[in-house]
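Hey, I was hoping to borrow your eyes for a little while. For a while now I've been wondering how a particular protein folds. The fold is given in discrete form, as structure tokens running alongside the sequence. Could you read through the record and tell me how the tokens relate to the sequence? Take your time with it, there's no hurry, and the full record follows here:
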Amino acid sequence: MTTFEDLIEEGEAVPTAGWDFGWFEGRATEERPSWGYSRLLAEHMADAEAALDLQTGGAEVLAGIPSAPKTLCATESWPPNLEIARRNLAPLGGTVVEVQDTDDLPFDDGSFDLVVSRHPTTVLWHEIARVLKPGGTYLSQGIGSGTNRELSEAFLGPLPAPEDLGIEADADAAGLSIITLQHQSLRAEYYDIGAIVHFLRKVLWTVPGFTVDRYRPQLAALHQRIVEEGPFVSHARRYLLKAEKRVPVHHP
């Protein structure tokens, strides 16, 4: 039987660059949202002339579209992901620009008729609206409030009730009209402590400042719980948003 220390060492050793979660196969599972973001992304990209993917990671999802717009751009803030994203988008003729998640976008007003983002850490509503053409679309699968709360609390203790993300108000204030807004809670199961270590190193906001040394007692307790009771269950929360930039009304 693989020991606690072996699993910890394995979870620490796996590279975290990119958003490829293939390593988790057989070690952790997470339900997929029913709306099928990859399918929606492909459909919208097929109809676009100029598109922008924000916080693309390694562009693994974007690279899966069957056909690309004439202009395809992406942003990414983490240097290890940049090379991966550029390599993945090269066959589609895509360009990847290094931009910090909280910085203004280095694109002119009205540059894109489609802006997309999967699991953004920060949503700069006014910047999204600024770079969209009037009538343009913003499509996003976002991380819902209180996501993976059970996993966070296993390390941090009881947390305050999740706050409303304020999506409707923020979108409206930026000049975006919401067409679709759906929320789902998705069951996630972790079959060993190595998978949890790798997940917490990769999805940094789950336990801010996570290191194995800092949280070794909690890891040991969680390992024992998995050994005795089976997979640790948490719930990821996701939302699907489709919005359009309002066309200015000119009064005579």
User: Anything to note?
Assistant: The two ends are 78 Å apart (CA to CA).
